[in-house]
Amino acid sequence: MIWLERINICAPGIVEARKVLDLCKQILESTAFETELRLKVFCNTTYATDISIHLLWKSDPGAVSILGREVDSALQDLGLISHTVWIEQEELTMVDASKIYSCQEIPLGQTD
Asked: Are 68 and 81 in contact (CB under 8 A)?
């Protein structure tokens, strides 16, 4: 099963944002041989100080990972943090593309 740990940070300035990105680089280097983890970092297209760190795991889902807690803790002094866990809905990844709806289009009560 694939699950995603998403850690979003809104840094107050470019100096703090650079520290966040430096930390992400260190994490990437230290986890390079981890086969159960894929790390991705995104920056907001409008606000370069809004950063989203995605830890993509291939294992049984947990509440949060040890690495996720460590990243969250390391970022606490650099901005506002949101740390959430998401689980891939496997049945939706294999459906016919013609049956995929946006959240607003899902008919209530439909089971297929």
From this structure: no
Q: Which two tokens stand for residue 25?
A: 């680089």
In 31-97, alpha helices (H): 66-75, 90-93
3-state secondary structure 54-108: EEEEECCCCCCCHHHHHHHHHHHHHCEEEEEEEECCHHHHCCCHHHCCCHHHCCC
User: What's the pLDDT at 92?
Assistant: 60
Tell me, which fold does domain 2-105 have in CATH? Alpha-Beta Plaits (3.30.70)
Tell me the whole-structure pTM to 2 decimals.
Answer: 0.76
